[in-house]
Amino acid sequence: MWLFGGGGQPGFNGDFYVLFARFQQWTTHQARDQSTMLQWLSNIFWQERLWFPEGLGWADLEDRDGRVYAKARDLWVALPIAFVFLILRQIFERTVGTYLASLLGIKETIRRNAAHNPALETYYRHSSKYLAQKSVVELCRQSGCSEKQLQRWFRRRRNQDRPILIKKFREASWRFVIYLFAFVAGLGALIDKPWLYDLEEMWKGFPTLTVLPSQYWYYMLELGFYSSLLFSVASDVKRKDFKEQIIHHVATITLISFSWCMNYIRAGTLVMFLHDSSDYLLESAKMFNYAGWRNTCNYIFIVFALFFIVTRLIIFPFRILYCTWVYPLTIYPPFFGYYFFNGLLLVLQSLHVFWAALIIRMALRFLPRNEIVEDERSDRDETDDSEEEDEERNGKIKKHGTIRNGYTTHNNNHRNHHKTH
């Protein structure tokens, strides 16, 4: 009877409910403490003296008299937009991207995977992806392969880890379409705005600057797209500048979000538009490079390099940064938000210098000797092997006019034309 709480004894059910009630009180108390802590942190973070010039605050950004201002809660719209971009990307790459690849002569290729060999696999994973001459004798003994077979195995194993050519083409074609769309959208949103032509206009009336529908959607689409890039970066083609790409995406998302919350919208639209003005050229150059249209790729790359240098190394630091660092000081004294905003812009400028150095090095190498331009900034793979790359790009191996290994014949007129010059 005690177990069931009968006979006036402190039964099991009674003890259980007492403990459960105390647990509820404890969790409620903890939740209240956490809520109080979060509220305290929120109050500290959103202090007006941190984010606004002296004498201004959040009350100045309350909607009134038909004037609408940016609000932090608007940024939640970017999350569903990011997921829509991820879905659209999958559809685009499987349909439009594949179709464009076939038009340019890029076909699905069947790679010869390296045969399973535990000894060679252990060496590949833990020692080196390349066959060291000093290890040849021992590996031959452990695997039962000849030296030539070892070289073939390591070549195929490296090639097995590299993304197939059509995957790189699909990704480039998706980014080309989005960057081109973003550039056109930015041009449409800014073409009639005075701060596009007179940069000092971006601060006139700050921070009480109303948000136009075109600015709203330009911001949300850009934020959604860069968020989708951050979500998908782990599954994308692994690039040489992977860490720099992560830093770039995080800095861009933070910069877009912060400039929206603090009503730096005019400056933000100019920064986004400037970045969108050249990225689509790089992606189109990659597409033609993957298709073997070498001359077309090289010409577009040179145009991209010129655009990149002019926009990122001249206009951005000497015009945009000047108008965010120097001109605001003539209107109001500096505050934390001023330093934070310009600090993020300096992070972007540091990345511009890093990428510009790679781009200029490629351009200088290309111009004197008319070499093939490779995307050293982001698409060179650390396990790249020229023999396997040619096999993948051509989709065949020709010997005395015959096709070996059953690969589909591709159109190489553009490459042959390049060799004749």
From TrEMBL:
Feature: DNA-binding region: 122-165
Ranges for region Disordered: 377-421
Domain Homeobox, residue spans: 120-164
Predominant cellular place of this UniProt entry's protein: endoplasmic reticulum
UniProtKB keywords: DNA-binding, Endoplasmic reticulum, Homeobox, Lipid biosynthesis, Lipid metabolism, Membrane, Nucleus, Transferase, Transmembrane, Transmembrane helix
Short name of any one Pfam family annotated for the protein: TRAM_LAG1_CLN8
Ranges of biased composition (kind: Acidic residues): 381-392
BP-aspect Gene Ontology terms: ceramide biosynthetic process
Membrane topology: Multi-pass membrane protein
Pathway: Sphingolipid metabolism; Lipid metabolism; sphingolipid metabolism
Residue ranges with Basic residues bias: 412-421
InterPro entries named in the record: HD, Homeodomain-like_sf, Lag1/Lac1-like, TLC-dom
Presence of the UniProt keyword Membrane in the record: yes
GO CC annotation: endoplasmic reticulum membrane; nucleus
Catalytic activity from the UniProt record: sphinganine + octadecanoyl-CoA = N-(octadecanoyl)-sphinganine + CoA + H(+)
Annotated SUPFAM superfamilies: Homeodomain-like
PROSITE patterns: HOMEOBOX_2, TLC
Subcellular location: Endoplasmic reticulum membrane; Nucleus
Ranges annotated as spanning the membrane: 75-92, 176-196, 216-234, 296-318, 338-360
Domain annotation TLC: ranges: 167-368
Protein name: Ceramide synthase 2b
Organism in which the protein naturally occurs: Hemibagrus wyckioides
